[in-house]
């Protein structure tokens, strides 16, 4: 059974809609264009799904090479387009009106707007895991479940939760390659209050965490280290990409190979 990349998604503005790609260039501790921009609230913290379900109601469509975004309210209303760099004032005014409080837009190409800057360049999840979890949440679409966890890379060709082979016990990662890009699986991703929110409306499902934990308990792979990370409320794998890989490309169809365990203090 050979694991391979089956899907690549990036999120140009942190917390907003994804863009699906057939190939992606590796940047500095992130993929190029992924979380290059983020929205900040007046207190300097991210305007994201953890803070407000209103984030889920904002639709964003991108023309990535030209750095353009088109915003609209999912509930209806006009579309408004901006250049993300040249029309920053217009972007911030639109976002401030949408959220009802001042919002600023920040830009960073060094991976510093990722959820775990530097230490986690991409998150990995298998299609089989999504399909398994979808059985628990069959009242929703598979795409709904996918959008709740916002993985950068999905894998095909493997069984559910195979991606957890990409980490060991706490403190032990796994060196791996995707195509000719070398990276290190660091840890399972602990989840927050975002997955329980409907990805299009922001409405919270108060049963979501309990149902997910119950499902994880039933489907935990043999030899899993997940319990050692504190709880079963984890999904996707945090993965570190060294700066030496900048400029390489990841492509749908690239084979994934596990090379060897590595102690994380010496991983870089």
Order of helices and strands: EEEEEEEHEEHHEEEHEEE
Determine the fraction of residues in helical runs and give it as a percent range: 10-25%
Q: What's the total count of β strands?
A: 15
CATH topology of the largest domain: M1 Pyruvate Kinase, Domain 3
Overall mean pLDDT score? 95
Q: Helices and strands: which structural class?
A: alpha+beta
CATH class of the largest domain equals Mainly Beta
Given the structure, what is the number of helices? 4
Distance between the termini: 29 Å
Walk me through what this model shows.
- The protein is of the alpha+beta class and 268 residues long.
- Helices cover 16% and strands 31% of the residues.
- The chain is built from four helices and 15 strands.
- The protein has helices spanning 88-99, 127-136, 142-149, 208-219, and strands spanning 3-10, 19-21, 23-25, 37-40, 58-63, 68-73, 80-83, 104-107, 122-126, 153-156, 172-178, 181-190, 234-240, 249-251, 255-263.
- It has a seven-stranded mixed barrel with strand order 1-10-9-13-12-11-15.
Which key phrases capture this entry?
268 residues; alpha+beta; M1 Pyruvate Kinase, Domain 3; 2 domains; 7-stranded mixed beta barrel; 3-stranded antiparallel β-sheet; 31% strand
What is this structure, in a nutshell?
This protein has 268 residues and is of the alpha+beta class. 16% of the residues lie in helices and 31% in strands.
């Amino acid at each position: 059974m050979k694991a391979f990349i089956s899907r690549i998604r990036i999120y140009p503005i942190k917390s907003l809609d994804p863009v699906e790609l057939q190939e992606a260039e590796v940047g500095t501790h992130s993929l190029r264009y992924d979380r290059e921009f983020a929205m900040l609230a007046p207190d300097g913290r991210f305007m994201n799904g953890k803070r407000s379900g209103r984030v889920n109601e904002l639709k964003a469509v991108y023309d990535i090479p030209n750095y353009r975004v088109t915003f609209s309210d999912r509930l209806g209303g006009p579309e408004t387009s901006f250049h993300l760099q040249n029309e920053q004032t217009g972007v911030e005014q639109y976002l401030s009106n949408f959220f009802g409080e001042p919002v600023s837009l920040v830009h960073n190409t060094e991976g510093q707007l990722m959820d775990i800057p530097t230490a986690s360049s991409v998150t990995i999840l298998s299609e089989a895991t999504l399909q398994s979890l979808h059985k628990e949440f069959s009242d929703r679409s598979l795409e709904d479940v996918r959008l709740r966890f916002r993985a950068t890379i999905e894998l095909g060709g493997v069984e559910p939760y195979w991606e957890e082979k990409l980490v060991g016990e706490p403190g032990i990662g796994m060196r791996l390659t995707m195509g000719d890009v070398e990276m290190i699986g660091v840890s399972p991703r602990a989840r927050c209050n975002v997955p329980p929110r409907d990805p299009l409306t922001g409405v919270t499902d108060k049963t979501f965490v309990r149902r997910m934990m119950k499902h994880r308990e039933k489907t935990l792979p043999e030899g899993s280290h997940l319990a050692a990370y504190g709880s079963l409320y984890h999904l996707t794998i945090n993965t570190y990409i060294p700066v030496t890989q900048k400029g390489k490309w990841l492509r749908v169809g690239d084979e994934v190979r596990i090379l060897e365990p590595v102690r994380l203090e010496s991983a870089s």
